[in-house]
Amino acid sequence: MTITIKDIAKEANVSIATVSRVINNKDESIRKDTKERIKTIIRKHNYQPNRIARSMITKKTATLGLIIPDIQNPFFPELVRGVEDFANENEYSVILCNTDGDLNRERKYLDLMKEKNVDGIIYTYAFAELSKPLKGFLEENNIPMVLLDRAEPNSKMSGVYVDNEKAGYMATKHLISLNHKKIGCITGPEHIENSKERFSGYYQALKEANIPLDKEIIFTGDYQMKGGYKAAKGLIKKEVTAIFTFNDLMAFGVYQAAAELGRKIPDDLSVIGFDNIKYNHLLVPKLTTIEQSSYKMGENAVELLLKQIKGTPEQEKETIIIEPLLMINESTSQNKL
Ligand code: RIB
Predict the structure, then answer these.
(1) Is the CB of 75 under 6 A from ligand 1?
(2) Cys-Cys with 211: which of 145, 206, 246, 299 at CB 3.0–4.6 Å?
(3) Is the Cβ atom of 194 under 6 angstroms away from ligand 1?
(4) Helix (H, G, I), strand (E, B) or coil at 21
(5) What is the sign of the dihedral through the CA atoms of 297, 193, 187 and 167?
(6) What's the CA gap between 78 and 327, in Å, rounded?
(7) 76 CA distance to ligand 1 centroid (A)?
(8) In which element (H, E) is residue 291 found?
């Protein structure tokens, strides 16, 4: 027979609410001997609180929602792992949703999370800041939310991001230090805040070195391999000596284009990516890139969200900025021209 909270209360000769307060450590007002009697009975029957029943009393399910835009991009699983591990350490489960940038799917998942009564949501938007479905959902529901990886300009929400501008500056500065002046740039999708910030870093480094910005060698990418491949074919024809891509998947596309056009990396063309995804070590030559510490970003996002869940509704907005690391490998070398 499954022991219920009702059975525990009956045996301890107290109310269900009293047992619940002891289970949820909200038992300051309960006499010590009563608390001990209830805990002894719980241990005797090895009683496990029913999550659904508990949620009906505490209105919490110890579950977090996590929405990401592209599960196939190796950057995101590392981010998800950081969220899941830290959530589990704090006895929270995670519902993972992948939107592929589909706004209908996004709203469906948001409604699912409301139905599952998640305690909070961690969100990485797909293309263009916060979508209308999400803004509508937030207006209709007072649910704690933290942005992860992609900021929303002037947002009131807490968030965790790498210092994208500094990272873009570091990557470009590295190429300039190797005497590259004609540095092609393949950005992310133009409305994504982190792509704009990386571009700002690229521009700052060029300006500091008195290298004029050449719009002819700046291509808008899509954070996908095919976008990197297409842009690289154009850039190689313009005789750039180096290419900075705003993520590693697009750098894979650059490798493919360089091979097709007979350019050796790094002898003829230096390449630097962004993300330091785990498959980079399979590339020959190994890709020079920017480490985002995405696992740590995921952990920090959970930390901020739990603060909101356990804190007061007017919890102050908090932003965590992660320091980027330049990982110099074999795909960049001195410009001989
Ligand atoms: O590779 C995917 C890109 O989009 C990464 O640079 C990450 O920052 C995400 O926003």
Answers:
(1) yes
(2) 206
(3) yes
(4) helix
(5) negative
(6) 17
(7) 8
(8) strand 289-291
Report the separation in Å between the CA atom of 274 and the middle of ligand 1, taken as the mean of its atom positions: 8
Whole-number Cα distances in Å, 168 to 178, 223, 331 = 16, 15, 17
pLDDT per residue of the chain (337 residues) written in tens, 0 to 9: 677 888 888 999 988 778 877 876 777 778 989 999 998 998 888 887 666 555 555 567 899 999 999 999 999 999 999 999 999 999 999 999 999 988 889 889 999 999 999 999 999 988 666 777 788 888 888 889 999 999 988 888 899 999 999 999 999 999 999 999 999 999 999 889 999 999 999 999 999 999 999 999 999 999 999 999 999 999 999 999 999 999 999 999 999 999 999 999 999 999 999 999 988 888 999 999 999 999 999 999 999 999 999 886 666 789 999 999 999 999 999 998 7
> Strands 183-187 and 218-220, how do they pair?
parallel
d(CA 136, CA 107): 9
Ligand 1 neighbourhood includes 149 CB (under 6 angstroms): yes
pTM, 2 dp:
0.82
Is any atom of ligand 1 closer than 6 Å to the C-beta of 198? no
